[in-house]
Write a structure and sequence with these properties.
121 residues; mainly alpha; Monooxygenase; 4 helices
């Protein structure tokens, strides 16, 4: 039986909030969801700092893929546009900073790329 075939259960005083503990309000669950979202935004935004630091420290970006980081930059730019369209400051902020860091990494790749010599190929 698939989910679409299950009967809907409705009650006049029953409000179900996913991942909430019994007795908690919808507002508490919403605040918890915002906390999870904000934490995820901080972690996924700042995760690019170690990569940028390593490239600057080693002056080597040979292991960075233009196509992967380029695709990532396009995807993050699209998320930024989406955030602007819906007016969500957390989505806008996280993706603006992430885009900046990813573009910096691409710039470092261009700056520190070493020309391949026939012996290196």
């Amino acid at each position: 039986m698939c989910l679409a075939e299950l009967p809907a259960v409705r009650g006049p005083d029953i409000v179900t909030v996913p991942f909430s503990r019994p007795g908690s309000s919808a507002m508490e669950a919403s605040a918890f969801a915002e906390l999870i979202g904000a934490s995820a935004a901080v972690v996924t935004t700042l995760c690019w700092l170690p990569q940028a630091y390593k490239i600057i420290r080693d002056r080597d970006a040979s292991s960075i893929s233009y196509s992967a980081y380029g695709a990532l930059a396009v995807g993050v730019a699209m998320w930024l546009v989406y955030g602007l369209m819906i007016g969500s400051m957390p989505v806008i902020g996280a993706n603006a900073v992430t885009l900046l860091l990813v573009l910096c990494i691409l710039g470092l790749k261009a700056r520190f790329s070493k020309a391949l010599t026939p012996a290196a190929v």
